[in-house]
Amino acid sequence: MKNFKSSALFLSLVSIGLTLSACNSGSQPTATNSTSSSNSNINIAESASSLPQVSVNDLKQIFNALAADPAKTTINLESAVAIITGNDQAALAKLKSLSLSGYSAAVANANNVPHVTINSTPTQAQYNEALFAALFIGDVTDSSGSDGTSDLGQITWDNTIKNLGMVSHRFFGGYRLAQQDYTWSFNPGTLETIVNTPNQIGNLSDVNFLNVHQGAVGDCYYLSTLSALIYQRGAASVLAKFHQNGTGYNIDYTDVHSVASQISVTPVTDLEIATGAYSAGSGQWLSYLEKAYGDVLMTPEYSFIYFGNTPVIAGSIYDLATFYDGMIASQLPVGQYYPAFKFLTGHEVYEFDTVSNTDDTLVNLYAANPNSNNLILGTKLSPSNMVNLIDPLLAQGRVMVLGTPVDTKELNGATDSTAVDLPPGIVGTHAYAILGHANGMFKLRNPWGTNFTPAGPDSITNGYTMNDGVFYVPDADVFKIFDQIDIEQIPGLDKTPVVINGVVQKDSQGNPLFNQGSSSIMDSFVTSNGAYIKNNYSSDIAVPLSNNH
Q1: Would you call 357 a catalytic residue per the annotation?
Q2: Which domain of life does the protein's organism represent (predicted)?
Q3: Quick one: 320 and 410 in the same domain?
């Protein structure tokens, strides 16, 4: 397999010096493949007709109850998000009180779906919520292009009928439908997710990277960073971020100005649990962390880093009240690893990408020039040299994440002459956590929790055996597949900017001051803030926000 990337495409995804990487939630199809899951011989390209179907009459009752137009054919997107996030309690109560007649049949059918286990009998209210969540995901995520765009689908009766198979699949769960088969993965249903998630934060055994399962939200880069953090720091470090605050939690994070902060997060709703990441029934810790990150990402400090400014784009998720509201719509904009690393670890990140269409050489993308507004290609590093760096860097406890190319055949069409042909079971515009490196093999995890069995021996041609998202890739293959690696910077070991009260300190000539590190491993590379310290930390935006946003 020849792996190459269009530099023009890559540079088109760069804005004011920020590398942007779309994130695949596995909800947008463009290709077909009949590969089987390692858990069964079920063909992934199974038809929608082979799965249970939700009640059309019940869906119509939901429209009749919640649609605002006279014809009762359109549920306003913002209104739907307000119901999901619990901000419209009256509408949520109306939804939960509906006497939908398909309740008993749906519960019976759910228990007959292969590999779906519901721990207790759902209530009528839980059924109603799960059906609404499936309706929402099925309509919104199946109406626009691949994940990473800012366009939203509409919740209309026509879309619901057109996407009835998708709505049913999202409700019941099971193996992906034919139009999603490039994901090779298994979806928990919205009913299963609501019923099986206990109403508690979780304990040390619950906080496990194997319990991170991406939902309809395209935040793979965040969930992979979180998974790598759990691997390197352990569950206790994650639970230590939570502080009980009435019925919700204050959650610790670090803002982009390196100021330790907290955000107050209201209790997650059943609908938020159903539409976001799934913790495999291990409690609500993952839902809270996803919600906290989404809310913080729309504050001025983070949106400046993420978008370059505070955006207001008509008809996109940015119209919604918070970024998490947009995340629920499964339409994250093209994303960066930097804010995820900063939020979770409090540290900067080294970022390397392959920008050449002639080889796989990794480039440290950001120049050290603090006055640079644009991308300036930095130090180059061969894939073999990067592989040699991995062991000592992992030994220092660094969080690391790999990313796949944006332009791939499975996303953009098999006939696209510039598209990368990835191995079966690995998808484009997606983030994978590094969970170790030994004996010439990288241990990685897909946040979908994918299972996959290659048609032949593990190889770059056949793909790699995956169990619950965990798989192993040889050193020789890793940078033929992945075109980006992000590596946590460790203060004390690395050169870091001098920051006081959230402001980078500068000398009399306006150049930033740096603390020198004790480790020489990364001396020749710059962190992801190297090219735009001046912009990110200028006096007009560097005033730290309140610790309780």
Answers
A1: no
A2: Bacteria
A3: no
